[in-house]
TrEMBL record:
Lineage, highest ranks first: Bacteria, Pseudomonadati, Pseudomonadota, Gammaproteobacteria, Oceanospirillales
InterPro entries according to UniProt: HATPase_C_sf, HATPase_dom, His_kinase_dom, HisK_dim/P_dom, Sig_transdc_His_kin-like_C
Taxonomic source organism: Halomonas halmophila
The keyword Mitochondrion appears for this protein: no
EC number: 2.7.13.3
Catalytic activity: ATP + protein L-histidine = ADP + protein N-phospho-L-histidine
PANTHER family listed in its UniProt record: SENSOR HISTIDINE KINASE
Protein's recorded name: histidine kinase
A GO molecular-function descriptor: phosphorelay sensor kinase activity
Pfam families, per database record: HATPase_c (PF02518)
Length: 527
């Protein structure tokens, strides 16, 4: 229930965030449109203002010039008659025209009427002439006029203010209209598209996109977008379905291949176990052959000596010295038989203990040096056939609560690895096994050989399953992998290797005196 409420709150926050985003998008688009229109309008307004000012001045000048030309006859008549009173009234009337700012009339006798100003700033100059009775044209006055530019500017500014207010109102209306139109025709389809894209079942079983049914969705562009998305979505869903089918099929294939690989690996391990067992049996037979053969020879000799004495006794030819020789020979044979049978019993005991440890892999308290010596005893038959030797320097009295069977397998595999790989192609070789206690309730076992060493490229892979340099020559590639698993997973220790080409190899095994309780031996491991 709490999760559902939290999910609902998260969805609500997501929708609110999308709405705010759409509003900002509409606002920005409308603002952009307004800015573009405003910039264009400002350029147009500046050009229009310049044109309006220029044309207004031209119209004012034309109006003033027409007014002055219309008043020329009256001005000429009043000046000719020296009717300065009427002239002043006429000048005052002309100055009342909005376009005319000031008029100055200078008579021929030097009198100035109207507004005095610097005639150099005059916009108009008009010479007033009259023809006398002799038909001669005389200059009777000079009129200078100046436009009222301030009035023209005031009218233009007023017009621009009115136009500016109208323009601002239009901009506001355009902004609101564009924003509303964008939200209706663009935001609504986009919101529907966003909600659709964020669906959790988009690529699986969700519905198809339908934005053309809503406001603004009927636009051709949105219809094309809807068709393109739905087509692509159908392709994606078909591909997703195929991928799911491939995934299920691949999982089945991987599981089947894994089972086959595990079965093959188990078969290899079993074969290696049988090979190791065969080697162990052969070694036992070889080692027992000598003491049993010696005992059998001694027993046969003693039997023949006794039968000869019996014949002499029956014939009455048995002498005291002969009897003493027979008894001495029999006693010697008995000693030989006792010694050889004791040796055989010792060998059988060693082989039996090693076999029991490897078959049961039970946890027990054992002496480290004894287990290693017993293991090496099983290797003696095969080592005797080679020019190589195995030596030990073991600390006596180191007791471990752990798994002697896996430890024996580790020692066997490391010695076998030295013979097969370290001494390959060499006439001599020496393996030295040492043991010592550490300061942290652990023991250190080192298996050192003076062989040809391990290349750097192989050191990183030496504990990987199926890695071997003897592929096709009897090597399964599992020996060192099994060593690593037995040391780390069964006995709860660690194993490291140091080697340099031509300088031999050193395998260092560090084991706890008390193996971890969680470490359980794997009965499928190679023996």
């Amino acid at each position: 229930m709490t999760d559902a409420v939290a999910q609902g709150g998260a969805d609500s926050d997501t929708r609110a965030g999308r709405n705010r985003l759409m509003q900002r998008l509409a606002t920005r688009f409308a603002a952009l449109v307004v800015v573009v229109i405003t910039l264009g309008s400002l350029v147009f307004a500046i050009v229009s203002a310049i044109w309006l000012y220029t044309s207004s001045l031209e119209r004012a000048e034309a109006t003033a010039r027409a007014s002055l030309e219309a008043a020329r006859p009256t001005l000429t008549s009043t000046l000719w008659k020296y009717d300065y009173t009427s002239l002043r009234q006429l000048v005052g009337g002309l100055e009342g025209i909005p376009e005319i700012g000031a008029i100055q009339v200078r008579t021929s006798d030097g009198e100035t009427l109207g507004t005095a100003f610097d005639t150099a700033t005059a916009d108009f100059e008009m010479a007033i002439r009259e023809t006398n009775f002799e038909g001669k044209e005389l200059l009777i006055g000079q009129l200078s006029a100046r436009l009222d530019r301030a009035a023209v500017q005031a009218r233009i500014e007023h017009l621009l203010l009115v136009q500016g207010a109208i323009f601002i109102g239009l901009i506001i209306v355009i902004y609101l209209l564009v924003r509303w139109t964008f939200r209706r025709l663009v935001n609504t389809p986009l919101r529907g598209l966003t909600d659709f894209v964020l669906r959790s079942d988009l690529l699986t079983t969700g519905p198809e996109l339908r934005i053309s049914d809503g406001p603004g969705g009927g636009a051709l562009e949105f219809q094309q977008l809807e068709r393109a998305i739905n087509d692509q979505l159908r392709d994606h869903r078909r591909d997703w379905q195929e991928l799911e089918e491939y995934k299920a099929s691949l999982e089945d294939k991987v599981a089947e291949r894994t089972r086959q690989l595990e079965a093959a690996q188990d078969e290899i391990v079993r074969n290696e176990k049988l090979a190791a067992l065969g080697a162990l049996v052969a070694g036992v037979a070889h080692e027992l052959n000598t003491p049993i053969g010696n005992g059998l020879t001694a027993a046969s000799t003693a039997s023949e000596t006794v039968r000869a004495a019996e014949r002499e006794l029956a014939e009455g030819t048995l002498t005291k010295s002969r009897l003493e020789d027979t008894l001495a020979s029999t006693r010697e044979a008995s000693d030989i038989i006792t010694s050889t049978l004791g040796r055989a019993r010792e060998l059988v005991g060693n082989f039996k203990q090693v076999a029991v440890d490897r078959q049961s892999e039970n946890r027990r308290q054992f002496a480290l040096n004894e287990v290693i010596e017993e293991t090496l005893a099983t290797l003696q038959p095969s080592m005797k056939k080679t020019p190589y030797r195995v030596e030990t320097d073991l600390t006596v009295g180191l007791s471990i609560d752990g798994y002697p069977g896996p430890l024996g397998q580790v020692i066997t595999n490391l010695c076998d690895n030295a013979v097969r790989h370290g001494f390959d192609g060499r006439d001599t070789g020496r393996v030295l096994i040492t043991s010592a206690a550490t300061d942290d309730d652990q023991v250190r076992i080192q298996v050192r050989d003076d062989g040809q060493g391990i290349p750097d490229a192989h050191l990183k892979k030496i504990f990987e399953p199926f890695f071997t340099t003897k592929l096709g020559a009897g090597g399964s590639g599992l020996g060192m992998s099994i060593v690593h698993r037995l040391v780390t997973q069964v006995m709860g220790g660690r194993i490291d290797v140091e080697s340099h080409p031509g300088e031999g190899s050193v395998f260092t095994i560090v084991l706890p005196i008390n193996a971890p309780i969680a470490a359980e031996p794997d009965s499928t491991r190679e023996e």
